[in-house]
Amino acid sequence: MAVLRLFSEGVPTWTVAEMADALDIPQSTVYRTVRDLLGEGLVEMSSEARYRPGPAFIEFDRLTRLTDPLMLAGRMILRDVVH
């Protein structure tokens, strides 16, 4: 989770070395973590040796929009406001 929390609008891509420095953990640990995250689609390569959030987040975002009680309640209120 710490690796995933590094990504932001201000810093959307990271190298393994940058992640290791930011988290103060060995690069070997970050390499293993990134390998696992790649396998799950949680990160992807953005350019040579740089990573960004992966396509799995689109799926999670859609699921949240479809099932979150607050989002569902807000949808009903916004329909009334639009009318």
Description:
With 83 residues, the chain is mainly alpha-helical. Helices cover 64% and strands 11% of the residues. The protein is built from 5 helices and 2 strands, in the order H-H-H-E-E-H-H. It has helices spanning 2-6, 16-23, 27-40, 56-67, 69-82, and strands at 43-47, 50-53. A two-stranded antiparallel ribbon has the order 1-2. Helix 2 crosses helix 3. The longest helix is centred in the middle third of the chain and has 14 residues, at 27-40. The radius of gyration is 17 Å and the shape is elongated. 10% of the residues are buried.
How are the elements arranged and paired?
Blueprint: H1 2-6, H2 16-23, H3 27-40, E1 43-47, E2 50-53, H4 56-67, H5 69-82
Helix pairs in contact: 2-3
Instruction: Determine the number of helices (DSSP H or I, runs of at least 4 residues).
Output: 5
Backbone shape:
elongated
Average of pLDDT? 93
Q: How many whole angstroms does the radius of gyration measure? A: 17 Å
User: How far is the first residue's CA from the last residue's CA?
Assistant: 42 Å
Largest sheet: 2 strands, antiparallel
| Total beta-strand segments | 2
Structural class assignment: mainly alpha
Strand order, sheet with most strands: 1-2
Content of β-strand: 5-15%
Helix and strand run: HHHEEHH
Helix content: 55-70%
Q: Which stretches of 5+ consecutive residues score pLDDT under 50?
A: none
Notable characteristics:
elongated; 5 helices; two-stranded antiparallel ribbon; 83 residues
